[in-house]
Structures are given as C-alpha cells and as structure tokens.
5'-deoxyadenosine deaminase (candidate division TA06 bacterium), 434 residues
Amino acid sequence: MKILIKNATVIKDVKTAPFKGDILINNDIIEQIEENISTPETDRIIDAAGMIAIPGFIQTHVHLAQTIFRNMAEDVSLLDWLNRYILPFESQHTAKTLYDSARLGIAELLLSGTTTIQDMETVLHTDASFKAVYEMGIRASMGNMLMDTGNDILAKNIDFLMAESETLYKKWNDTDNGRIKYVLTPRFALSCTKELFLEIRKMSDIYDIPVHSHAAENIEETKIVKQQTGYGNIEYFEKLGLCNEKLRLAHCIWLNDYEYDILKSNGVNVLHCPTANFKLGSGTAKIPEMLTKGINVSLGADGPPCNNNLNIFNEMKLAGLIQKVRLGPESMNAKEIFRLATAGGAKALGMEKEIGTLEIGKKADITILKPNVHSLFYDENSIFNSIIYSMNRDNVTYTIVDGNILVDNGILRSADIQSIIREAELSHNHFNPI
Ligand SMILES: [Zn+2]
C-alpha cells in the first residue's frame, strides 16, 4: 500500500529545519521525503496543508494493565498507592478485564499521537494485553510483571514467573513485522528477591532481552532499598550485573552522585514520568543534569491511576515547566523536550535505526498535527514551542504506525471506540473497591 502525505510542514528531526514537503510511504517504510513528490500510483493521498508531520511520539513507560483503575487511587504516596490500591487491584484482573484495560489505554495513546510504547503489565494474563496490542496496531515493547515478594496475593515463585516469561517471549517477540517485542519487567527492587533478579539477568543474557523496571522513585522506597541491600538503588542493580544499554529505568529521582556515573558509563536509559512524579509527590528528576552527563532520557506517562492520562502533551509540557522552576527558564528548551519524546524514546528502546526520526528507509511511524485556535504557529522558529507548550491531543489528526493509518482525520480506525468504552465500563465493575 502506498500513502502520499502532501503539503505538510515536515519535522524530520530536531537537527533539520522544518520545511514544506511531501512524504511517500510504501507499505511500512518511508520511501521518499521531498519538497514535491508526484507519483502516479498511490492508494491514498492525505492532504496535510497547514498541518505538521512529525515522527510518532514514543512513550517508554506506561502500564496498560492499570488503565481501568484510573481515578481510583488518589492523594497517596508511592508505597501506599501500591499497597492499598494498585497491587490489590492488579491481583483481581482476569484475562477479559486486562484485555479491556489495554484496549482503553491503547485507544487513548493512539488518539493522542503516541505510536510506540514500552509497557509494563501485571503478573497474570499478559497474553491478553499482547493480543490487544496486536489487534490495535500500536508499536510496543512489553512484558509480564515479575515480582516474587512484597505482596502475598500478586507475587509468584521464580519458576512460575520465568516460565511465563519464556512462553510470552517465544509467542510474541518480534511478531507482526517486528512491531511487537518482549521485554523482561521486574516491578522494582522491593518486589523482587536477589534470586529473581539473577534469573532475569540470566534470561536477558541468553535471549538478548532488554530489562524494564522502576528505580529510586520515592525517598522512602530508596531508604528501604538501602536498608535491605546496603546499596543505593542503581548501585544495587549494578552489583546484580543488570546495568547495561538494555536496562531501562523509570524515574531515577533519588540517586547519589556515583549512581549518575553508573547510568552514564553503562548506557542505562532513564524513563522520565514528570506527571506521575508530581502526582505521587515523589520528587523531581534531575533531567538537565543527566542530559549534560550524556545519559539518554525519554518520556512516559506511567500508569493512568498516577497521572491520570496517557497524554504525551502533558508529559512534554510538564517536563519543561518543572525544570524551569528548579533551574531557571533556560534549563531545557522545547526542541530538546521534543527530542526526548521522539529520538530519545527510540534510543531507549534500541530502535534508533527504525523509528524516532523521519528518514528514508525508516519505519513509517508518523503523527500529523493540525494547529487550531489555541495552537497556531506562524513560522518554523516557533514550531517546537507550539507543539510543546500550546498543542494538545485535540491537534492530533492522523496517527500512522508501520504504514497503517490507525487514527484517520481524528477517528480511531483500528478498533471501535464505543465498544472499547462499553466493555471497559463492564470490566470496571469486576473490581472490588479497596
Ligand atoms: Zn510505572
């Protein structure tokens, strides 16, 4: 299938000046980007005059399993949020409720211009979330939650967890043209024994599977990690042999100076979730300092019950604002934030050769934004400021993943939105209030 996007303002990456032009997609690949492409044979022409074509947004830390718990765990800090609400809720999931939760989250993500996610599921039934991702077309790296301590109902023994991981890896990794990838996902240091972490490292080494976890999100959590292990959270992961370019860690707020060096020297990727960090009162990650050190940083919304959206525009804007308060207005500009939400995400997922920028030969993962009354841009100099500080999900007009138009003129095409809402409401009734 050939799709021609005509007359857009094209942002290929943050290094290239935006320009008026066309993009030709051939199946899943960007075949041409030129000022004017005239091709006699296309299956679809999108007239994007007045619109902006950008690399699809990448969110490197979300929890589709938690979408259905949105607005049900309020005004508490991380450990209470987990122990009083999220872990008991997750333990009540069935395959059906997990599938409905994932579909609700994916619909929101696609409608707000996110083309790729890294997702952390729950302990059981993760096959249902893979199925939702497969059906709805979003690009995803994801895995079942690994935890063998910290909650009697949700935690499982190591043999069960690793067998489930191997089954899911063999069934789903690199499926559907490489769109879906399996990732090992230990919840965090407090829910995994040392023995489990060592099994995870072993499986990561054998199959070359990345590891996605949380680290140093909350000061109390970080103190308990120190009490239990004798180390800071990142130091502990280094001692376990987990720190390398395949490690992706959400938050990284409460680190000592040595731990920043560990992140840098081992190429560990930081997944920054500013809204969740503020909503749980966790703290502010030192993102500009990390970037200065050369640590790769990307963005994510985290779970809907600690956000309460999966909207990349919220994350981009807040990522900028909180650093301006902390370090001054020049601390991180809009272009840099745009890079974190696109190329930074691609690097975190080890996919910088495939996604994150618009280039000939890369995957056709493209978001098209239509400025409106609250977000006009007048020239190329203001375009990044408009996207980060003025635009929102109502500007998202097309979302294209792997050459498939999943949101078409603002309408979700890869699933029926009314049935997603209806089934999510029914599934929500399954959960007993805590
Ligand atoms: Zn999280």
